[in-house]
Design goal:
CATH architecture of the largest domain: 2-Layer Sandwich
Number of domains: 2
Helix content: 25-40%
Strand order of the largest sheet: 10-9-8-11-12-6-7-13
């Protein structure tokens, strides 16, 4: 049995009365429950279908009142097309659709699913308008793309992976698919930044929209907790990038302001090195963990998580930092008082403040920009 949980707006458009709604037991299989909502995008009525368990979704522009009287047919036709485009075997598609021939309608019952469906709807609206509206956009490609957006509700998995898993199919989305789907759309990169040779690791996890390496440097400095003001350099794919400086005579050094994050990330090169303060040589390994679409209501960059405090500036690199740390954590150490005074009276190596980190990131966005660029 197929159970379609319709929003009140869609039920009204369909003319579904309370008495016509299904009030029996929920389907026994997690595959059998879907949510549906009526949207208006680019002056066109459309229906968004979202699988309750996996958040796999597809959208149809065929939402006239006449068609909505047979919403189950609209659903099955849209699902068949979406699964075919995803490369599912015809026998898998047919078996699922046969089970969906008995369709029932009822109310929505999960705020969590509705919240996720609202986010999905915003993404469809954004992508359709970005691609010249309903009349000109390539809707099947947008559906493919948005089923490759990781969701926190899925443990940062992709809807297509979860949906395929419910069908008994092991489906893993490769970085090549993400890069192809997001080309030119301002992709959001999930980055894990780890200070090399720190043990335990001093790290941050960021969401960063595609930017120049020059701006990325500002974000990395802010997220880690550095004060800035020192020379820095990116190393990726055998090339080095930094801010051009007439005093820095290195003909092989490339201009970081002319290169974007997307230019140095590939399937072969998912990580790169960011070195801050070429004297102390703080090397950070930056790894691309995921790539997603921008959420219209979200600002970037943002720090999601992290661990441990940033070392003090000018402490002498990673070796000097651990000598400093040994002194400040042990009152009996002969250098304890002097090091504490040098550090401004205190240093907590366990300290990591997510809110403060995000405030620093906001400041890094605003640096050098007018206030109107940030609101």
């Amino acid at each position: 049995m197929l159970l379609i949980r319709c929003t009140a707006k869609l039920r009204k458009e369909m003319g579904l009365k309370e008495a016509a709604l299904y009030d029996g037991d929920a389907p026994g299989s997690p595959l059998d429950t879907w949510y549906a909502n009526l949207l208006r995008i680019s002056r066109r009525k459309c229906v968004l279908f979202t699988h309750a368990d996996s958040l796999f979704s597809f959208l149809t522009f065929d939402a006239s009142k006449a068609r909505l009287k047979n919403l189950d047919i609209v659903f099955r036709e849209g699902l068949e097309e979406a699964m075919t485009r995803e490369g599912f075997d015809n026998t898998v598609i047919s078996r699922l659709l046969v089970g969906y021939e008995d369709a029932r309608y009822t109310k929505t019952d999960s705020r969590s699913v509705l919240g996720s469906m609202n986010d999905i709807a915003l993404n469809y609206n954004h992508d359709i308008l970005y691609n010249e509206g309903a009349e000109y956009c390539d809707l099947p490609s947008i559906i493919l793309k948005l089923n490759r957006v990781p969701f926190m509700a899925l443990g940062s998995r992709y809807p297509i992976e979860k949906f395929a898993g419910l069908l008994g199919i092991d489906r893993k989305i490769l970085l090549t698919e993400r890069l192809a789907a997001l080309a030119g759309s301002g992709a959001v990169y999930q980055l894990r930044v780890v200070l090399r040779e720190s043990d335990p690791a001093i790290w941050r996890r960021l969401l960063v929209q595609d930017v120049t390496l020059g701006k990325l440097s500002d974000y990395l400095i802010a997220a880690m907790g550095w004060m800035g003001g020192h020379l820095h350099m990116f190393s990726a794919g055998g090339k080095r990038y930094s801010d051009p400086d007439p005093e820095w005579c290195d003909p092989d050094l490339l201009d970081e302001g002319a290169v974007k994050l997307s230019d140095i990330v590939s399937v072969k090169h998912r990580s790169f090195i960011y070195e801050y303060d070429l004297g102390d040589s703080w090397e950070h390994e930056v790894t691309v963990e995921n790539i997603g679409s921008p959420e219209p209501a979200r600002r970037y960059p943002v720090c999601l998580d992290g661990g441990l405090a940033c070392p003090p500036e000018d402490v002498g690199g990673i070796g000097g930092f651990y000598e400093f740390l040994e002194a400040v954590v042990s009152p009996a150490h002969p250098e304890h008082d002097r090091m504490l005074t040098w550090a401004g009276g205190g240093y907590d190596p366990e300290a990591f403040d997510l809110d403060q980190t995000n405030r620093a990131l906001i400041a890094s966005v605003m640096q050098g920009s007018g206030w109107w660029e940030f609101i």
